[in-house]
Write a structure and sequence with these properties.
single chain; about 750 residues; about 10% helix; CATSPERG_Ig-like; Cation channel sperm-associated protein subunit gamma
């Protein structure tokens, strides 16, 4: 079984995704998402394609051991076509993948490792390891010891003004760099990375800008401006930095060093515009005492333990505006000024790295390789691994004979993609070699198993019969979204139906001619869509109409010729098979993102019932009450977006119906032309006490229910053009071999064409 797909490569296209779906006929076929990104780090040689980053490494067995620690994968979210992973102890080797590690290449990078240390940049020990590796749209960056290198990919489709690199280029030549911090989202066409200084530059930071393949770092601290240590008038070091692009503010985690072994920690802010520092928060020296509520509000009145609070890093979600300080505790804030401690997380094992999904979930990995999970805005923190639910799921996979699980596996990395939480593990084969596998981390399975293990079951007697009843921690049984608007207006997505040409050959098999015709038609369609700049008053909104407007009169003739197998070139293109779709339905699902124009309103309904199907038929008694079922909306920017909730009781059905309205207030001051200065915001839809408690069981497994966070983009005034930065979606059916294209518009400065699901 196989599929064919046109892969038109047009300008500004480096990230491509294809989603293959079943049409529901014949054999059951699971949906499959394929990542087909352009890898600009390859070169043509006499022996074929080879990596331009360095020499290919064929064996991973010597690099990965059972006691190796995992490390994060850093990249520009949804924009980097190639991901890289370093951190192999004693080896200057990185893993390079253009398919989100469905496959990969191990490369020994071609950099010189000559700087061991100096008076201005003391180095305790030398290592060949690549410590920090960051991937952007067209550039890879890495740090080895105190040296920073970058490599620009050969991306002609991006029309970069700079050529692709032939060798790794060193930057910040006179700077002692202690760490690289990623900036996960671009802003107005630029990507960023932050270098933290060490040695004589300790307490300084350097914001690097990446635009059109060019990397620019300031080579020294701006003269006349104080460093953060000079501002605090202490000896200090910067441990972590986060760049809030919308505010052009860099938030720093600063360690104030003292002669004694104790240190003070501060959260500092730096304004890029005027160069001023100010103190946001002084972190408590000791860990607060647990209140057994799952959280502790840090008001200065709480009691403290004797354990030192040691922060190690920062994380920020620009959509929810939630800011995290993590180390041997997790502190959470909505405004960078007031904090709560998530006390369910123990201090016995500090966090090694922190991963945000940017759609409402986060995961952290500790130095002892424990994996912890939470939902943003909730105080519940759950250990996923090691745990009894994990052991249960792991045993079931071994019983099934799954090759993706093994007793001797090594945990390599953890990251989120559009399919959820992904885990990289290395499984040795017992002969000195092995295989690096990417697998879906069973997040929802573990959370649902956890409730079965914790709450067990109880006996239920009904009509002289005895039943086993499992405890339901969820306050409702059924949740549905209803009355959602048509998605095209709010998702900036246009949809096209495109049939492949009919082949005149008796076998019906496609050949190079038919596929080339199809490829050209899809390329032309994307070009027409991107070039479509007519105002909304134009009576014709379908760019494909301009293909056929002068040929419609010949449609019956062409069909007659094709029906007799005499079409020119052996292929027949049906004009009616290329149309724009206007009647897309929401299918009772919230979109993955919402764009709100000035004063626009997005409304829908939420149906919640305490009765299951069996309870509605009188087979089982009701256990819950509507008094415990309450829906809430949490907005990231309540000044610019407001919500209204109206609760309607349906007592005869044991249900409530919420009418929800999300409105733009029109007060966002930076609303400009389409795609410029978009404000990242979000709406979190939550049923009270549903975090990690409520699940909807489907054929593909349990799914978290009762919580949803949808990113909202604010900025486009009505009546403006919505074209250019176009995300393309391919959906396939095999019934008539049709292809459906969804096009989403964002930033006119970056018209980056790519496919996604």
């Amino acid at each position: 079984m196989c599929w064919y797909t046109p892969m038109p490569m047009t300008k500004r296209s480096v990230v491509t995704e294809v989603l293959v779906k079943s049409n529901g006929l014949g054999l059951e076929v699971d949906n499959k998402r394929f990542v087909m990104n352009i890898n600009g780090y390859m070169k043509e040689t006499e022996t074929g394609l080879q990596s331009s980053l360095g020499e290919k490494v064929t064996s991973l067995g010597e690099m990965i051991s059972l006691d190796s620690r995992s490390r994060p994968i850093w990249s520009t979210v949804n924009q980097a076509p190639v991901l890289i992973l370093g951190g192999f102890q004693g080896y200057k080797i990185i893993l390079v993948s253009d398919s989100e590690f469905a496959d990969f290449t191990a490369v020994e990078v071609g950099i010189d490792s000559c700087w061991i240390g100096s008076v201005n940049c003391p180095l305790d020990s030398f290592s060949s390891s690549i410590f920090d590796a960051i991937a952007t749209e067209s550039v890879l960056l890495l740090r080895q010891n105190q040296l920073v290198y970058y490599f620009t990919g050969n991306y002609s489709v991006l029309s970069l003004p700079v050529p692709g690199s032939g060798l790794w280029t060193r930057v910040l030549n006179n700077i002692c760099v202690s760490r690289l911090n990623p900036v996960p989202f671009p802003h107005n066409g630029s990507e960023f990375v932050i270098a933290l200084g060490g040695g004589v530059q300790e307490g300084e930071f350097f914001l690097g800008t990446i635009r059109d393949g060019a990397v620019r770092f300031p080579e020294s601290h701006a003269k006349g401006r104080k460093t953060v240590c000079e501002h605090l008038n202490i000896s200090c070091a910067i441990l972590w930095a986060v760049y809030i692009t919308e505010k052009e503010v860099i938030v720093l985690l600063v360690e104030g060093k003292k002669k004694s072994s104790k240190s003070d920690y501060y959260i500092m802010a730096y304004d890029q515009a005027d160069g001023d520092f100010w103190t946001l928060y002084s972190i408590p020296r000791f860990i607060p005492k647990d209140t057994e509520k799952g959280f502790v509000m840090l008001l200065g009145l709480e009691e403290y333990t004797d354990y030192l609070l040691i922060p190690r890093g920062l994380s920020y979600n620009p959509f929810s505006t939630i800011f995290y300080i993590w180390g041997n505790v997790i502190l959470q804030s909505y405004d960078l000024l007031n904090y709560i401690q998530l006390s369910d997380f123990p201090q016995r094992s500090p966090i090694s790295y922190f991963i945000l999904s940017y759609v409402g979930e986060f995961v952290c990995v500790t130095v002892s390789e424990e994996i912890w999970f939470s939902v943003e805005g909730s105080s519940v923190v759950v250990r996923l691994y090691p745990s009894e639910p994990w052991d249960t799921y792991f045993s079931l996979q071994l019983m099934r004979g799954s090759k993706d699980f093994s007793f001797n596996e090594t945990f390599v990395s953890l990251f989120f993609n559009k399919e959820g939480l992904q885990q990289l593990v290395y499984i040795p084969d017992g002969h000195g070699e092995g295989q690096l596998i990417r697998r879906n981390f069973p997040l929802h399975y573990i959370l649902s198993y956890r409730h079965l293990i914790i709450h067990r079951y109880h006996w239920l007697y009904l009509q002289d019969s005895q039943y086993i009843r499992f405890f339901r921690p969820c306050s409702f049984s059924v949740m549905r979204l209803e009355d959602l608007p048509a998605p095209q207006r709010f998702t900036r997505m246009e949809h096209y139906c495109t049939e492949p040409p009919d082949v005149m050959d008796r076998t019906g098999f496609h050949n190079n001619v038919s596929l080339a015709v199809y490829q050209g038609l899809i390329f032309q369609l994307l070009w027409l869509h991107a070039d479509y700049s007519r105002p909304y008053a134009d009576p014709v909104h379908d760019p494909t109409w301009r293909w056929w407007k002068n040929r419609k009169q010949y449609a019956e003739y062409f069909f007659y010729v094709a029906s007799n197998g005499n079409s020119s070139g052996g292929v027949y293109v049906n004009m009616e098979g290329y149309t724009k779709t206007y009647d897309l339905q929401p299918n009772n699902q919230l979109p993955s993102k919402i764009y709100l124009d000035k004063n626009n309103v997005y409304s829908f309904s939420v149906f919640l019932s305490i009765r299951s199907k069996a309870q509605s038929m009188g087979e089982m008694p009701e256990e819950n009450s509507l008094d415990f079922v309450w829906l809430t909306i949490v907005l990231a920017h309540p000044k610019f977006v407001v919500s209204d909730l109206h609760r309607h009781y349906l007592r005869g059905r044991g249900s409530v119906l919420y009418s929800v309205t999300i409105s733009d207030t029109g007060q966002y001051p930076q609303q400009e032309l389409s795609g410029m200065n978009l404000l990242k915001s979000s709406m979190a839809l939550k049923v009270i006490n549903s975090a990690t408690n409520c699940y909807h069981y489907t054929a593909s497994g349990p799914k978290l229910q009762g919580y949803a966070m949808v990113p909202i983009f604010i900025g486009c005034p009505p009546g403006k053009r919505l074209a250019f930065d176009i995300t393309r979606t391919l959906k396939y059916t095999t019934k008539q071999n049709k292809h459906y294209f969804d096009c989403i518009h964002e930033n006119p400065e970056l018209p980056c064409f790519f496919f996604n699901d």
